[in-house]
Amino acid sequence: MAPKDTFRPSTTRLSDWQRAYQAALKEADTRQLFKLVEVAEAAVRNRQAELKGNPDHHSEREALQKAVTALLVVKRNRLKYRQQYFPD
Hints:
The chain is mainly α. The chain has three helices and no strands. The protein has one domain.
């Protein structure tokens, strides 16, 4: 039996954030891509918030962070997004 924090998207039913994330990665139409990236980012943030304070799900937390990074790359490379940083 696998540990409860094992994250295997290929062998389990995909969660909402995974479906949204994969849809954004697969989208070829840049007109649709912007909205799909927004939806995927929101789904990832929601899942991260759900896991906050829960010591389990280490693998999923890692996958969520990788998804955040990949979505930033999509925004920068395909949508020509330039992130601006505002200091606190």
